Each structure stands twice: as C-alpha cells, then as structure tokens.
C-alpha cells in the first residue's frame, strides 16, 4: 500500500491537514463500491456515506470519482511489484522479474485483482474517463519502466531489436488480464508458472538460465 | 424430441417453424441492449420488447439470456475472420494470417468490437455465466484452430517447441483486447500494423518474408 502522507501535513491538500485514516477510509469505500457496482453505479455521495465523512471532505481531496477510484485501484498494487527506476538501471530484466514474481503471482491470482480488472476493462468504452485517469496517472509511469527494461533487453540481444516495445508490453499485460477473466481462474502457483512463460516468450526471462 | 421434426418444424425448434427474420431481430436487440446496458442490465423481457416479439418466442429459441447474448456477439465475427479446419490443415500459419488480416484489422478497430469487448470482460467476474457460455460455445472452438496452427509452427520451427500454446493464444488475444480498450483507440490501418507485430512476435507471421 502506498499511503505515504505524514501525520500532520499534506502534500496535495487544498489547505487543511489530511488525516491518513480518513483518506484510507475514503479509498477503501471507493474500492468496495467500484467492485460492487462499477464506476457508473458509484457516486462521490455514496463513497462519502460509506466512509463516514461528508461529501465536501471527499471533494477537498479528489477532483472527481474517476481520480479517486483510479487512486484506490492503484493502492491495491503492492509496492514490491513495481521496480524502482534505479532497479531498472542497475539490474537485468531477468533479475528484476525473479524478484517481483512471487508478488505478481499472488496479486494477479487474487479475487480482488480479478474483480478490479473486470470493472476497469468493463468501463473503458461506456465510461472512458476512468480508464483515461488510470492510464495517465498509474499505467503510463509503469509502462515507462517496462519500456526501459525492454530497451536493455534489446541491447543485450534477448529481445528482438525490431520489436515494438508498446506491442510487447500489451502482450504481457494483455495475456495476464485475459487469463484471469477466463472461466476457471488460476491460483497463485499457476499464475507463477504462467507469468514466467509470458516473460520467457518475450525474451525477458529465462527459466533454465541462472540469473 | 429433436428427432421428431416434421416438414413443418425446424431441427432445433420446440414445435414451431423458426422465422429467420424473427431470429435476426432478437439477436440484434440482444446485441444493442448488451452494448447499452451490459448483461446485468439486460433481460429477456427487454430483448423481446425491442425485437417486437413475445417473451415465449425468445424462450422457445434460447434457454437464457447468456446463451442468447453469446450467440449475438458471435454473429458479429465476420466469416472471413475464422479459418476452416481444412485451411488449418493445408495452409501455413503465415498464409492463413495474410488472408484474415484485413478482416481482423477492420473488425477489431470498429466501435462495436470495442464496446462488446468491454462489456464481455466487464461482466466476467460479477456475472460469470455469460463468459462461461461464450467461452464454451464460441471461444474454445476457435482456440482449437489456433492451437493447431501453433502446433504446425512448432513443427516448422518458427515457434519454440517448449512454448505453451495456451499462453501464446492468450498473449495474442490479450494484446488486441487490451489495445482496443486503451485511451486513443487505434484505427484499422494501425490495427493492421499492430496485429502483424503480435503474430510476428509469436513466430506465426514474417512481414519481410514472401508467403
């Protein structure tokens, strides 16, 4: 979880100290309602009510429900699942993947990840503002890291130099997304094997090779 | 029951001749309502009303809304997008892909495909019976054909023999699915380039090679 506010001050607030417990309650309420009802069935009013705060308390912190839900979804991504820019510069793709694999398998096999994935994909056309907010604030920064890993691998020769990194990232993310929405969803052990196979096909991971 | 058809009844009917125009109207109504409201917001009653028929007329033909919506979605897939089992036996994967590429690019770049993809993915967790029906009746038969193409390519050496075909199929289908749900969706020309890149990465298609 990425709740990094300090106890007394606020980096992003609009003039009042932020209470981390209030923020956490609002984010949790937003996540629950999004899973239960989707973005179209969720309002700031309902989120405030479930969190036990006033509507203005929510509006003071987030400009709209799309930004709020996007941040709530992002907070479900464990910190050890995303490499730092320094990791990407100093470690090989294989080493980075080896380190994030357990968290990646656990996370993507969880019922919460499945439900959030379905809701996010499901709203992409009927309610595109949520995907736009999530894409801009959360997906693009992670794609930049993946892009850097792929460029290293293209320099090292494990990934074809003429491959389009955007297509490769979609193949990796898209496979996992599609797999967890199929009937008979995988458990964490199956996801571990599955994600290794995906990375291996791209050329980022070599199961039989020592790191 | 099914063996007792007379000249006046149909093979699958429950005692009355089927009118192809009625079937088409019901399938079109089911598709429109699914796009507008999702599976949870669509009922047999609403479908019947929009198609201008009675509820019983629908129930006589389909056992439930999931089966009906699954068939309605399937009917949007152009016939020239799916190779026949004979094609798969007699043509190389490269030749098959070369032939289906224009239809694949047109279809996947269409607003209808985007909307249906979002709705289908979106209902996978909250309402899994639709995905289960679509998977069983429509996706699995197509996956079998893709599986046969991949086995040929593994024998020919363009696809790694140790790759898991299920993972490769998910990478291809997942990439396209994820791409069309991103902000700034692609047009048909961009999808043509994109799908070529996906098949090339898997080893089924070689843009620089003559077929």
TrEMBL record, chains A, B:
<keyword id="KW-0805">Transcription regulation</keyword>
<feature type="domain" description="HTH tetR-type">
    <location>
        <begin position="20"/>
        <end position="80"/>
    </location>
</feature>
<keyword id="KW-0804">Transcription</keyword>
<dbReference type="InterPro" id="IPR009057">
    <property type="entry name" value="Homeodomain-like_sf"/>
</dbReference>
<dbReference type="InterPro" id="IPR001647">
    <property type="entry name" value="HTH_TetR"/>
</dbReference>
<feature type="DNA-binding region" description="H-T-H motif">
    <location>
        <begin position="43"/>
        <end position="62"/>
    </location>
</feature>
<dbReference type="InterPro" id="IPR036271">
    <property type="entry name" value="Tet_transcr_reg_TetR-rel_C_sf"/>
</dbReference>
<dbReference type="InterPro" id="IPR050109">
    <property type="entry name" value="HTH-type_TetR-like_transc_reg"/>
</dbReference>
<dbReference type="Pfam" id="PF00440">
    <property type="entry name" value="TetR_N"/>
</dbReference>
<dbReference type="InterPro" id="IPR011075">
    <property type="entry name" value="TetR_C"/>
</dbReference>
<dbReference type="Pfam" id="PF16859">
    <property type="entry name" value="TetR_C_11"/>
</dbReference>
<protein>
    <submittedName>
        <fullName>TetR family transcriptional regulator</fullName>
    </submittedName>
</protein>
<keyword id="KW-0238">DNA-binding</keyword>
<dbReference type="GO" id="GO:0000976">
    <property type="term" value="F:transcription cis-regulatory region binding"/>
</dbReference>
<feature type="region of interest" description="Disordered">
    <location>
        <begin position="1"/>
        <end position="22"/>
    </location>
</feature>
<dbReference type="GO" id="GO:0045892">
    <property type="term" value="P:negative regulation of DNA-templated transcription"/>
</dbReference>
<dbReference type="GO" id="GO:0003700">
    <property type="term" value="F:DNA-binding transcription factor activity"/>
</dbReference>
